[in-house]
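Sequence design from tokenized structure. All designs in this work follow the same two-part layout: the structure record, then the generated sequence. An example of the structure record is given first.
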């Protein structure tokens, strides 16, 4: 009984709604309910079996209590050993049967729950894959993980556990009350009258305990944040570099001490609560004993027996858990709706960038690119690009230069349809990129970014991400182009060398050459390079530049240039400032204009060139 009353005061669900939950309570509608139950529809036959098992278990569960009454009245009082054994075996059989049915019910229930979680997570992952790049630049990563893990796991349990638990509790209560009143309606009324006395303090103390738990959780969140920040790769390095070990340790001890004190306070309040509720819970059986004893002793009810009293006490105790659980049903239901609402909010986010129904896959033998009067705005009101117009002939290399924040990366992001233009048009081989099949478009555009991203796996796995069906010979040929093959085979595990989280086991130059090899393996028609050599030493830069020269040979390329060597190699240079192309031409011509390019040359390119010549 104590366990039943404790639900919601420890690690389980709360038995009340917070003010925030009350204010944000979702509205129940037929449409929402149908949408929720749709996840149960594929498993309706299994769920019907669970409901049947619940009803059978509720009825069979009465037998041990009723048989106890017969054991007392017929076997013990009648001194019938044979009947005693028979009744004990029958009680054991019904108890075992009830437990077996319960296990089967629980197994199927868990299976349904996990299948629903499986379906919902697949649906969520597939949907999030299609979300535009802007979704990931604005949404918190923690929120995405919460929807995928905690929220979906929660609703998977809700569909089955909350529903089946409610049905089970109603069935147990109905069967138990029917048995109680059939035995003796007077004592049944007395026995159930005491139940509210145990529930009122349960809810009151539950609020106090939850408040303490919430405070402790707040401090625990701070502690987790501290651990995450200071014991991560970057955080631990920073702590060592600035010798902050002692102060961070003291900060951790302080938070840990607050968590410990609050947890102990909550646990102490829980012990007194269990004692009080445990005492109140015994009042019901004591009243039944008193009333039954008085009726038997005074002979006011000649049909009443000791066995009947014993059976009724067992049945009354069987009511406590279901009653307490059903009182919390409204809270559980509201909280469940909130989870569904959060998940459906993600499901309902529109996939704004996708292939049209009649999307095309044009021939890209000649892959000339054309931007015509392109305008684009992020969330701010001021456009980041304004009336951008230029053409890149097939097989040529254009460099884009300009100060930070000018819109250079946005120009190339629009080509890949990471975003769509607000006005104007971008075309490849004469076809608007919005008319392309999106997969086909991105398969034919290779990208090398300044920050080379590698998954936490082997070199081979990271390379095959470009083309999973590539042969060993193709893999090695791509790595030779990128000047990284010799380095790889020199490692003990060769191509199976682990690169670490985000490639941290490799140097910047090694990571970049692997990313170039990955693009070379993809062998796209068009290359987009956010030049990856700006933060590398001259030796690494030369190796990577040589690799890029080979990869770009014969391909249409747009390069965001940070180095003069790249600018000089370009067929044409676009100078971008404040979202517009303010100058364009070749290096020598642009220098004579004494404009933005000349300023960039004097402040950035020339200094880098002089440093390299002096090194």
């Amino acid at each position: 009984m104590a366990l039943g009353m404790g639900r919601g005061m420890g690690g389980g669900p709360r038995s009340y709604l917070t003010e925030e939950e009350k204010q944000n309570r979702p509205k129940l509608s037929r449409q929402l309910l149908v949408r929720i139950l749709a996840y149960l529809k594929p498993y309706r036959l299994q769920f019907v079996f669970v409901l049947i098992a619940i009803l059978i278990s509720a009825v069979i569960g009465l037998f041990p209590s009723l048989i106890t009454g017969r054991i007392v009245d017929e076997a013990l009082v009648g001194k019938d050993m044979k009947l005693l054994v028979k009744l004990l075996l029958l009680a054991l059989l019904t108890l075992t049967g009830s437990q077996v049915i319960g296990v089967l019910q629980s197994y199927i229930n868990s299976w349904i729950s996990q299948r629903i979680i499986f379906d919902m997570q697949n649906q969520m992952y597939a949907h999030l894959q299609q979300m535009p790049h802007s979704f990931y630049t604005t949404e918190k990563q923690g929120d995405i993980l919460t929807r995928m893990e905690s929220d979906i796991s929660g609703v998977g349990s809700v569909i089955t556990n909350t529903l089946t638990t409610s049905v089970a509790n109603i069935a147990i209560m109905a069967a138990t009350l029917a048995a109680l009143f059939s035995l003796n309606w007077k004592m049944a009324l007395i026995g159930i009258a005491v139940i509210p006395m145990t529930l009122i303090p349960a809810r009151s103390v539950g609020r106090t305990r939850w408040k303490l738990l919430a405070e402790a959780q707040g401090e625990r969140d701070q502690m987790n944040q501290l651990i995450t920040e200071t014991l991560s790769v970057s955080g631990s390095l920073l702590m060592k570099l600035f010798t902050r070990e002692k102060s961070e340790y003291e900060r951790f001890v302080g938070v840990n001490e607050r968590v410990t004190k609050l947890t102990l306070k909550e646990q102490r309040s829980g012990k007194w609560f269990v004692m009080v509720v445990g005492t109140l819970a015994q009042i019901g059986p004591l009243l039944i004993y008193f009333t039954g004893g008085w009726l038997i002793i005074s002979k006011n009810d000649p049909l009443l027996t000791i066995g009947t009293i014993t059976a009724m006490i067992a049945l009354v105790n069987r009511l406590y858990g279901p009653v307490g659980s059903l009182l919390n049903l409204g809270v559980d239901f509201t909280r469940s709706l909130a989870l569904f609402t959060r998940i459906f909010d993600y499901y309902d986010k529109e996939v704004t960038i996708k292939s049209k129904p009649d999307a095309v896959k044009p021939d890209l033998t000649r892959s000339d690119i054309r931007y015509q009067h392109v305008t684009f705005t992020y969330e701010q009101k001021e456009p980041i690009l304004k009336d951008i117009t230029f053409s890149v002939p097939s097989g040529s290399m254009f460099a884009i230069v300009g100060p930070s924040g000018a819109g250079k990366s946005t120009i190339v992001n629009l080509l890949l349809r990471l975003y769509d233009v607000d006005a104007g048009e971008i075309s490849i081989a004469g076809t608007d990129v919005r008319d392309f099949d999106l997969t086909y478009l991105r398969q034919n555009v290779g990208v090398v970014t300044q920050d080379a991203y590698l998954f936490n796996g082997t070199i081979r796995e990271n390379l095959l991400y470009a083309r999973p069906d590539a042969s060993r010979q193709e893999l090695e040929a791509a790595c030779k182009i990128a000047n990284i093959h010799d380095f790889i085979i020199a490692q003990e595990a060769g191509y199976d060398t682990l690169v670490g989280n985000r490639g941290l086991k490799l140097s910047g130059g090694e990571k970049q050459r692997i990313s170039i090899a990955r693009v070379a393996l993809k062998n796209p028609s068009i290359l987009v390079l956010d030049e990856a050599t700006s933060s590398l030493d001259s030796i690494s830069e030369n190796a990577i530049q040589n690799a890029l020269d080979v990869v770009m040979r014969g391909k249409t390329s747009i390069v965001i240039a940070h180095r003069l060597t790249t600018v000089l190699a370009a067929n044409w240079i676009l100078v971008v400032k404040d979202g517009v192309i303010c100058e364009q031409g070749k290096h020598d011509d642009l220098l004579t204009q004494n404009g933005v390019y000349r300023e960039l040359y004097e402040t950035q390119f020339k200094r880098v060139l002089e440093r390299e010549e002096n090194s």
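The first strand starts at residue 369 and ends at 376. We note this feature because it recurs in several other targets discussed in the main text.
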